[in-house]
Amino acid sequence: MARFDDAELNADPRGSTQPRSGSGIAIPGQEGNTIEVPATRSAISDAASFMHNLSLAPSMKDRRNSRNSFGTSLPIPRSPRMSRLSSVQRGSGAPSVSRDILASQVQDINKEKTAKAKNMAFAFDIDGVLAHGNHAIEEAKVALKILNGDNELGIRIPHILLTNGGGKTEEARCAQLSEILEQPISTDQFIQSHTPMQALSEYYETVLVLGGDGFKIREVAENYGFKDVVHPKDLLAWDPTISPWATLTEEEKAEARPRDFTKTKFDAIMVFADSRDYQTDMQLIMDLLLADDGKIFTKAEDPVATRIPIYFSQGDLLMPTEHKGLPRLTQGAFRISIEAQYKTLTGVDLERVVYGKPERATYTYADEVMKSWMEELHGVARLPDNIYMVGDNPASDIIGGNMYGWNTCLVRTGVFQGGENDLNSPANFGVFPHVLEAVKAALAKELGEDFKLKWNPKVNPVTHGDGASAIE
Ligand code: G3P
Ligand code: MG
């Protein structure tokens, strides 16, 4: 299967396994639980192209670039099996044992078709493909039902969910998705934008974590193993003047963990989801980026030299929502604003790391999840030859899938609102009105046009082998 060629990635050769010297940050060695994947996205701010020339002070123009080398690699967990998240009981939601026995008899007889079915898998985007916000897309329910065994072989066809969304724990999101999609979704087949970032907990002790509703993101970070997780509301509860117009409810005050933050040295900033309070979050990020080595409310003589790293969980500019008009702005817009503020204040581009689709590290991690999900469903931990990515955003789902050698299907239920295909990042398998049509087309290609999208419980495996039709 085609994969990224490192030579094409413009990856900094310092990136993959060499410890970064001079950063003052403990980097796990080869024996650690992480793999460092060279970044495919530039480590340098995108803001310049969006900025008016006047916003860059002439006196700043000659300042050197940051000495930090963050962005040269993106650590991901070495294996999902070692993940702290793999807590859901294996096999939950699977068909009953008696039905499994009958299905395996049918599969034994239809060996050729079964082998093909075991050599394919899907990677689904969520927002704009399976759901809009908290509402399932109806066709997605049918598509997942087919893949969970409602087909002539009664076979489960592996599918993982690969979303740039986030902001709550994998368990919470899977429970919500299982409910609205009426199909079981396990954390073992699920990747949010920040899921691979759990690897970073081996690198950083004290982190400012931002985004999402309430304090949910703290639970996410603590599940990932971060030891000292600071939330913007902790800082607000300690000193309400840090953000001129922010207020905390009594409940928030009770849940916040204020302390004397003048004694805290932050090691990194992590934006895990969309900000719910741009003013406070931007202010705190800027405070930390301009501080002396992560000591908040200090002012570095040379902020570029002592700046702590900043990570964003994904780079999408737009996302589909329940809103009927144009797609809504998301984390990419927040990041570009941070980059522009930093460049205006310091005159240099902000170095930062962005995870999520279409970043290679996210797809590398997806491979690992896919392999272990294959093992769960088919007993062999290997990648199938035919992987179909179904997405609605050409700039993340499709470009990433194309680069990674997957078959890509673009659907019309989300961000993409174009004509025949996207002009910049065309889907290589085709454009479909919705996910069900994409799944049907992929199954027809791999298993034949006559492959039945219905499990017949009255099937007689002895009399109904390859080519025979089941008794209704
Ligand atoms: O970009 C924000 C997020 O909602 C996108 O999610 O599932 O379309 O990757 P998804
Ligand atoms: Mg989407």
TrEMBL record:
Cellular component per GO, a single term: mitochondrion
GO biological process: glycerophospholipid biosynthetic process
Region (Disordered): 1-34, 56-99
Domain of life assignment: Eukaryota
InterPro entries: CDP-alcohol_PTase-I (IPR050324), HAD-like_sf (IPR036412), HAD-SF_hydro_IIA (IPR006357), HAD-SF_hydro_IIA_CECR5 (IPR006353), HAD_sf (IPR023214)
Family matches, as Gene3D superfamilies: HAD superfamily/HAD-like
Pfam family of the protein (one): Hydrolase_6
UniProt-listed NCBIfam families: CECR5, HAD-SF-IIA
PANTHER family (alphabetical): CDP-DIACYLGLYCEROL--GLYCEROL-3-PHOSPHATE 3-PHOSPHATIDYLTRANSFERASE-RELATED, HYPOTHETICAL HAD-SUPERFAMILY HYDROLASE (EUROFUNG)
Name of the protein this chain belongs to: Phosphatidyl synthase
Organism, scientific name: Penicillium olsonii
